[in-house]
Design a protein that fits this description.
The complex is a heterodimer.
Chain A lengths: L6 H7 L9 H26 L4 H8 L6 H13 L5 H14 L5 H10 L4 H12 L4 H12 L8 H14 L4 H14 L1
Chain B lengths: L3 H11 L4 H13 L3 H14 L4 H13 L3 H18 L2 H13 L5
Classes of the chains: A mainly alpha, B mainly alpha.
Chain lengths: 186, 106
């Protein structure tokens, strides 16, 4: 299936019974088919995973006639409530946090890298992480991150654990305290 | 704000019967542990587009959760047929591992 024709597609073609099928009409039908296919591609992309408008635009662009076509499709999807950056950022944040604790900086950076605006990324990260106990989250992350480090020289183990926790986006003070507590237990 | 399942329902409403959307729906239900709905959506997806080895795979997993063992085995075999025909060694290997993980049939 290429896709589904919508009312606006039918109206834009302005077909009527007994119309002559000439070259320009064939071009219009072909353009409509490409638009329909592009919309289906967008729908399928969104069904696989939540995405930002920016990320979806990047995916559609290689398959579109021009960028205006992409913009039109994205605007339609937003009007239909199928593309919503705020909802998508929220969903993605939840998915990321299901995999394990991370820090505010990391979550914000991840959302930004997926094409969400800076303000939105920060506010979503704040929504999920501001009320959390960052130290408790870092301690939980450290339990996993510290595996295998006990075989290393202490200073190496310390540096590795600091690096692993820092990459998860925990604040410097929390990283320091977490590393002290984790490594002093052993 | 719409949650993921609501979003998928809306997407499916715009493209009813679309195999990709049905597959995504099945996967989301499976993730939530709602295996009855997962199996049903994956089955619908396969009715539209039978040549999806991973749809067979995930349907088989949900069927095992539902203790529909015979159906699960049949799903794995169907998936293996598709994977073999398509030359998808990775999918075939994963389906074979899934079957092996269930142990011999009694």
């Amino acid at each position: 299936m290429i896709g589904r024709i919508r009312r606006q597609d039918v109206e834009s073609l302005q077909l009527a019974v007994h119309d002559e099928l000439d070259a320009s009409m064939l071009d219009a039908i072909a353009a409509c088919a490409r638009r329909v296919a592009l919309r289906l591609r967008a729908i399928r992309s969104l069904s696989r995973a939540a995405a930002s408008r920016q990320r979806l635009a990047t995916r559609l662009a290689p398959h579109a006639d021009n960028f205006e076509q992409v913009t039109t499709i994205l605007d339609e999807l937003e009007q239909d409530g199928l593309l919503d950056d705020a909802a998508a950022a929220d969903q993605i944040a939840q998915e990321v946090l299901r995999r394990g604790p991370i820090g505010t900086y990391k979550l914000t950076a991840m959302l930004r890298s997926r094409g969400f605006a800076g303000d939105l990324s920060r506010s979503v990260a704040a929504k999920y992480l501001d009320d959390r106990d960052e130290l408790a989250d870092a301690m939980e992350a450290a339990q996993k991150a510290a595996r295998g480090l006990d075989r290393l020289p202490p200073e190496t183990a310390r540096r590795r654990l600091i690096g692993r926790l820092a990459r998860k986006g925990f604040s410097a003070s929390v990283v320091r305290e977490t590393v002290e507590r984790t490594l002093s237990r052993d | 704000m719409a949650d993921r399942l609501e979003q998928l329902h809306r997407l499916l409403a715009t493209e009813p019967g679309d195999a990709f959307c049905l597959y995504a729906m099945g996967m989301e239900y499976a993730r939530r542990g709602e295996h009855e709905a997962a199996a049903a959506h994956l089955e619908q997806s396969l009715m539209t587009e039978p040549d999806q080895p991973y749809a067979h795979f995930h349907r088989a997993q949900s069927l095992i959760h539902l203790q529909r063992t015979d159906d699960a085995h049949a799903a794995v075999e169907a998936g293996l047929d598709v994977a073999t025909t398509q030359g998808d060694d990775k999918a075939a290997s994963e389906l074979a591992e899934l079957r092996a993980s269930w142990g011999p049939r009694g």
